[in-house]
Amino acid sequence: MFTQCAPETIQAQPVVELVLALGSNYQADKYLPLARQRLAALGEVRLSTAFQNPDFTATTQLPKPDYTNQCVHLALTTPISLQQLHQTFRTLEGDCNRCRQNKPNQVRRVTMDIDILMIKLANIENSLSKNLIFKSISDWIVMADRYPFKAHEEAGVRELTVSTN
User: Fold this and answer.
1) How far is residue 145's CA from residue 57's CA, in Å, rounded to a whole number?
2) Number of H helices and number of E strands within the chain?
3) What is the pLDDT of residues 130-144, one digit of tens each?
4) pLDDT confidence band for 163 (50 / 70 / 90)
5) Residues 6+ apart with CB under 8 A from 162
6) Contact 51, 69 (CB under 8 A)
7) What pLDDT digit, counting tens, does each position of 84-133 carry?
8) Which residues of 61-99 are buried (b: 16+ CB within 10 A; e: fewer)?
9) How far apart are alpha carbons 90 and 144 in whole angstroms?
10) How far is Cα 63 from Cα 94, in angstroms, rounded to an integer?
11) Which residue(s) pair with 17 in the sheet?
């Protein structure tokens, strides 16, 4: 069961599981294993099949290198807020020498891109009413800014969540 949610509405909530999309179009054979190793330090990692995909923004006038994409299911050892996870992944991208280029029509070398596709929140009780805020921790919340998923993300999500539901 999937629920869509804008990430900014749940930034402070503790996350216990998530599905990530990893992507690299430059030295993927170096940076994907590094990212997976760092993610494994946060909890239990399961990997989807890796896909090589053309950059969907490439044109004949502006060819771009292909991406290697893979989804990761991460069951965190300790719950972490969504906001902290975003910061952690941005730091990890930097550790992979990610250089954010903003010039238009520039071919970008993306060593590592990490996007949060879906999360599961910790079971939280409201301290005043003792009512459950989130009734089921088995429900995945899809990040609305990442949906609809790209084809390789859809395939990775299906592969990783079929056995976890």
Assistant:
1) 18
2) 3, 7
3) 444 444 445 899 999
4) low
5) none
6) yes
7) 999 999 999 999 999 887 776 677 889 999 999 999 999 755 444 344 44
8) eeebbebbbbbbbbebeeebebeebeeebeebbeebebe
9) 19
10) 25
11) 75, 120
Q: Which residue has the higher pLDDT, 47 or 107?
A: 47
Q: Are 65 and 3 in contact (CB under 8 A)?
A: no
Which DSSP string corresponds to 1-38?
Answer: -EEEE-GGGGTTSEEEEEEEEEEESSSHHHHHHHHHHH
Q: What is the pLDDT of residue 49?
A: 96
Q: Is 108 helix (H, G, I), strand (E, B) or coil?
A: coil
Please say whether the beta carbons of 124 and 13 come within 8 A.
Answer: yes
Q: What pTM value is reported for the model?
A: 0.86
CA 5, chain centre distance (Å):
15
pLDDT at residue 130 in the model: 44
Mean pLDDT over each residue of the chain, to the nearest integer: 87
CA 52-55-59 angle, 5° bins: 135
Residue 4 structure tokens: 């869509």
**CA dihedral sign, ordered 81, 3, 120, 135:** positive
